[in-house]
Structure to design on (463 residues):
């Protein structure tokens, strides 16, 4: 069969599906169709531009060192719009006080002795316990998996985990450290422990050769776009053949018939394809493929529910004595918020001159009830917490509450093995079906782009 006769369906118009569609657009002689259930592309990427504010309602940036997103930005003409975040001190809220995150800490792991010894964030006993990492034997064998909580508590002790590691990592995965898989989230740490016998030594060794560090001191680790992340979505969409993009497309089922796949739509129409690239959330993928017994893990995969709360103020209404970009909250502190970004300080493009923009997060893996309250109740709760830390006068000029229900797939212990089993079953029984997206091999935007592009590369290789 020639390329001209090949039809590819991409299910889901989030960043993974967009990356896949963009790559398919560049392959000669292939017909593709991108199906999106809602009336817009971009998935969790949502930017609102209002009165000079750039408000991200989903992710606000991506890691600069993961280069696939920057590369794609160049390809779609957005390189000139890229901005690095303004660097500055980040803090941990413990009790009623903000403590600077110690210098040299990588994901909470100390790599510089002096700032770690001098920080009042930990007791002397807590610091001594963390230093035992230098003498402990490796925690597990190469192909084992344990929880992040178990791993970090064994290496660094409870105090450093509770007041630094847990709040930092929860900000990335919105998950429970005692359930999250080390192998699926931070296999790098497992490898460092194996190679160097210590996390602290391992990270010091990998950080050491940084001759250009001084030149880059003013640049942040994260990148975004001048008009917000959604401007990147629009730029990709403009590169796609309009007729190949189907919005408001409600799919009922996907099943294999002979060598091809049938997609049944809610309006009764059925379409036929040679390959399917699935980028939908895990429970949606499992439902659409419910004719097959291979996807129970996707159906059962936990996903956390959170909300982001953006508050806009006149700058003089917020007396913030701290210089920095924001703070994470120790789980043992009596607050509802889990983190707060001083967005106007971290991203100067996000607020007009003379205004402050604060973005807080609520909802925990073990308690997301706050997310179901009214906007006004959520804002009141967030304001109450913020006023314990800084002086805020009156009410915000406006606010935006965005609820993300069941939105962050949780990579629990054993995740990599279960995903490998699914992919093995699919390769054997459903060739031509390609599973990718945040539920599989990374939740970050560049990780999702990598997965969408890899799916297309596999298809092209098969052709």
């Amino acid at each position: 069969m020639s390329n001209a006769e090949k039809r590819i369906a991409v299910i889901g118009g989030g960043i993974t599906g967009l990356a896949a569609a963009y790559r398919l657009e560049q392959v000669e002689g292939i017909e593709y169709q991108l199906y999106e259930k809602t009336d817009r592309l971009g998935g969790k990427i949502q930017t609102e531009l209002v009165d000079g504010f750039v408000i991200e309602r989903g992710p606000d940036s991506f890691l600069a060192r993961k280069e696939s997103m920057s590369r794609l930005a160049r390809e779609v003409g957005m390189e000139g719009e890229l901005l690095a975040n303004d660097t500055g001190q980040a803090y941990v809220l413990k009790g009623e006080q903000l403590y600077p995150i110690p210098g040299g800490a990588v994901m909470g792991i100390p790599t510089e002795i002096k700032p770690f010894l001098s920080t009042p964030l930990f007791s002397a006993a807590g610091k001594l316990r963390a230093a035992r990492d230098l003498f402990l034997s490796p925690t597990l064998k190469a192909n084992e998996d344990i929880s992040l909580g178990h791993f970090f508590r064994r290496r660094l002790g409870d105090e450093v985990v509770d007041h630094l590691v847990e709040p930092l990592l929860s900000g990335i995965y919105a998950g429970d450290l005692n359930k999250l898989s080390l192998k699926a989230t931070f296999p790098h740490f497992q490898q460092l422990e194996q190679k160097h016998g210590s996390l602290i030594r391992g990270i010091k060794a990998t950080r050491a050769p940084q001759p250009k560090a001084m030149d880059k001191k003013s640049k942040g680790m994260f990148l975004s776009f001048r008009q917000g992340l959604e401007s990147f979505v629009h730029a990709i969409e403009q590169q796609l053949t309009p007729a190949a993009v189907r919005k408001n497309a409600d799919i009922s089922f996907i099943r294999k018939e002979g060598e091809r796949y049938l997609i049944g739509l809610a309006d009764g129409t059925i379409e036929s394809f040679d390959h399917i690239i699935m980028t939908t959330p895990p429970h949606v993928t499992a439902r659409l493929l419910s004719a097959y017994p291979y996807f129970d893990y996707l159906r059962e995969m936990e996903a956390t529910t959170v909300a982001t709360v953006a508050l806009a103020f006149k700058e003089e209404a917020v007396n913030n004595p701290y210089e920095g970009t924001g703070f994470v909250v120790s789980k043992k502190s009596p607050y509802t918020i889990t983190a707060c970004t001083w967005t106007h300080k971290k991203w100067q493009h996000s607020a007009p001159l003379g205004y402050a923009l604060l973005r807080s997060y609520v909802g925990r893996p073990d308690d997301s009830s706050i997310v179901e309250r009214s906007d006004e109740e959520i804002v009141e709760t967030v304001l109450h917490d913020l006023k314990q830390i800084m002086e805020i006068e009156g009410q915000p000029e406006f606010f935006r509450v965005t609820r993300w229900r069941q939105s962050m797939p949780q990579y629990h212990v054993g995740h990599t093995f279960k995903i490998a089993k699914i992919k093995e079953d699919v390769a054997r029984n459903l060739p031509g079906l390609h599973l990718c997206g945040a539920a599989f091999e990374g939740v970050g935007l560049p990780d999702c782009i990598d997965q969408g592009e890899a799916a297309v590369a596999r298809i092209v290789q098969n052709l």
Q: What stands out?
A: The first helix runs from residue 15 to 25. The radius of gyration is 23 Å. Residues 210-217 have pLDDT under 50 and may be disordered.
